[in-house]
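Batch job 17 of 40 flagged for manual review because the log was empty.
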Amino acid sequence: MNTPGASNSICDVPGIRVGHAENHELVTGVSVILPEAPCVAAVDHRGGGIGARDTVLLGAGSAVPFVHGICLSGGSAYGLDAAGGVLHGMRQDGVGFPVKSEIVPIVPQAILFDLIAGGPKRWEHPPWWALGLAAYRATTFETSLGNVGAGLGATAGRLKGGFGTASSVDEGFTVGAVAAANSVGDVVFPGTKTFRGWMLERSGELGGQLPPPNRSVETPIADATAGANTTLAVVATDAALTRDQAYRVAIMAQDGLALTTWPVHSPMDGDTVFVLSTGKHTIGDEAATLTRIGTMAAECVGRAIMRGVYEAEPLAGYPSYRELL
């Protein structure tokens, strides 16, 4: 069975850094995931309220072979400014594709809705561009969990959501994931403290989950509004994948949402999963190995979602998981 890496985070994949920045007055934030070198990437979108930037560059027929990073942001459509701040920082650092005398960084982005958390949002200048730059500048080979970055204003059903991460090592490959859990669906069984994905827990990372006394899937949805939620995830692996293979892993990784959240991929969510391949280790038996990596990705995404909720603190009227009776 696969086991968590040394830090149980996406940073266990060599060369992957994570950075966060927050605006606590507006209860929103940005998270940036950076590989040490340009890498193969893919994306899979689900749900009816997707908000994204430059993800078309990851599709079939794109002339862009690599990306330089991934940006996750709160702020709904306003938050799409965040990638601009990341690009500005990269340009200052000389990171990007050379195009004649210029350089052009490629940083696809997805956003979640957090404009309700913390009350009315008032600003003279939208803060997300500056938050994107700050998150880029803050990237390190470790990450915090809970109320940080894109997870600051996140909610998960009736609980405070958050930013989580997890990793898995098996058969010489490392897979890691981060997730900003902001779902319309619940992540625990009704009336219990048991996570829906309790069986995925590794090394007591969720406090030692037990099977639920009642496995009812019925979950009433309160105040559901189209486009007002979304869970975002980024998977990284040191396996050398083509774009098509990375896309298959992204499809499989979406099952991490299905294992931990109900309902999922709804009209109210814009669920998005990115995959980054750093290309350090070639895969042998392609089909079998790709299936294994995709399975590890789904597990890591599910665990990252639950860890984000588990580590979150109460905020903006939303109780934390640890406040459940």
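Reviewer: the log was empty due to a logging misconfiguration, but the result itself is present. DSSP finds five helices and 14 strands in the chain. Unflagging and moving on to job 18.
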